[in-house]
Amino acid sequence: MPEGEDLKDLQERLAELKRQEMGGVDVPSLDADIKKETIKMERAAEASNKPVLAKEREIGKLAESPSGPVGLDVGTTHIVIAKNETNHIQTITQLNAFFTIPKSKFAKKILSNNDILYYELDELFYIIGYSADNFANMFNTNTRRSIKKGLISTDEKEGISVIQAAVLSLLNRPKRFGETICFAIPGEPLHGNGSVMYHESIIKRFLSHMGYTPISINEGMTVVLSELSNEDHTGIGISLGGGMCNICLSYLSFPVITYSLQLGGDYIDSMVGQSVGEPATKIKLIKENELDLSSEPKDRIMTAFHIFYDDLINKLIESLQRVLSSSDQMPMIANAIPIVLSGGTAMPKSFTERFMKTLKNYRLPVEISSVRLADDPLNTTAKGALIMAMTEAE
Amino acid sequence: MAFPVIIYSADKSRGGILHKILKRNGLSTLWENQLSQTQAAVLTHHPEIFIADIKNALKNEIVFLANICLKLQGAFLIVIGGSVDINTFEKQVSELVLENNLRLTDPLSPELIVSKVKEVLSLREKPLQAQQTDLEIDLKQFLKL
Question: Does the interface predicted TM-score (ipTM) exceed 0.95?
Answer without folding.
Answer: no
